[in-house]
């Protein structure tokens, strides 16, 4: 494939790419290709999304509408993080089906996948390993005694008392000079701290305090702060402070785990140019 007619490497890295072979010397617009390239498997998280290069600006955009925008390069991109939600056999089957579907849709142009399906799956697995490291999240669980739970009003009172603020996603956030340090949200049972649930019997058995390590300027400082807040909330409620495995949370152990993951994150960032 002509590297000059492909999206930036930073985009290609996390996607399976199928290029469309636009004939040389013929001008296409989004309106020309839209009926053929848009709308495939739209309900699937791993849907192949068409991306175009604007012939005037030479910039890449997702293709959403049919108009007179001139294009000089066109690809489909399938996100590996979404494809990986399928079991290995399911991902392989999906790629086989979608490649057939796309080649039929673009028969008059020709579709060229960047690699074989086995190679794509290998690349997907590598990307997921890298993303797992990059998105490493530290969690501390504040949990009610076994078989018990606390109503939303109780959680809200304890979270506010510890200095967290209600905000995006109907979750609670801890800020330092308007910068988000960590979040609090229901853990075992997905949910939210919806204001309409205050005064009702809606309840959660536990809440996770968490942050993504690479997004923190000083992750060790955030971890210690989060530990102090978790202890304050637990004391208010009569709850326990636990790891995600259900063991008593120990700050020293968590600090050692953080020290171990930081070089891995730095290594992946260097590899990916992040």
Q: How many strand units?
A: 14
User: SS-based structural class?
Assistant: alpha+beta
Instruction: Assign the CATH architecture of the largest domain.
Output: 2-Layer Sandwich
Helices, by number, come to 8
Radius of gyration equals 24 Å
- Low-pLDDT parts are none
Name the CATH homologous superfamily of the largest domain: ZipA, C-terminal FtsZ-binding domain
How would you characterize the overall build of this protein?
There is one protein chain. The chain is α+β, with helices and mostly antiparallel strands. The protein is built from 8 helices and 14 strands. A hairpin with a 3-residue loop joins strand 9 and strand 10 (171-176). The protein is elongated. The mean pLDDT is 94.
Descriptive terms for the model:
Cell Division Protein Zipa, Chain: A, 25% strand, 38% helix, 274 residues, 14 strands, 2 domains, single chain, alpha+beta, 8 helices, six-stranded antiparallel beta sheet
């Amino acid at each position: 494939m002509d590297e000059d007619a492909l999206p930036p490497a930073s985009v290609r890295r996390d996607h399976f790419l199928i290029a469309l072979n636009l004939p040389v010397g013929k001008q296409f617009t989004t309106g020309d290709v839209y009926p053929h390239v848009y709308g495939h498997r739209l309900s699937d998280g791993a849907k192949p999304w068409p991306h175009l290069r604007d012939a005037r600006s030479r910039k890449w955009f997702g293709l959403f509408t049919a108009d007179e925008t001139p294009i000089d390069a066109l690809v489909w991109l399938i996100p590996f993080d979404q494809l990986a939600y399928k079991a290995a056999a399911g991902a392989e089957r999906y790629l086989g089906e979608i490649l057939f579907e796309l080649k039929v849709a673009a028969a008059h142009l020709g579709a060229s996948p960047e690699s074989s399906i086995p190679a794509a799956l290998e690349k997907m697995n590598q990307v997921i390993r890298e993303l797992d490291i990059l998105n490493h999240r530290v969690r501390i669980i504040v949990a009610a005694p076994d078989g018990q739970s606390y109503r939303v009003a109780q959680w809200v009172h304890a979270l506010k008392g510890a200095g967290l603020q209600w905000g995006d996603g109907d979750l609670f956030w801890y800020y330092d000079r308007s910068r988000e340090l960590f979040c609090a949200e229901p853990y075992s049972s997905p949910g939210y701290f919806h204001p309409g649930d205050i005064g009702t019997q809606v309840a959660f058995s536990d809440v996770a305090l968490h942050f993504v390590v690479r997004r923190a300027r000083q992750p060790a400082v955030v971890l210690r702060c989060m530990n102090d807040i978790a202890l304050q909330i637990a004391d208010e409620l009569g709850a326990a402070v636990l790891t995600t495995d259900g063991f008593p949370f120990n700050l020293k152990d968590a600090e050692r785990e953080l020290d171990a993951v930081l070089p891995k994150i730095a290594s992946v960032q260097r590899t990916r140019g992040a």
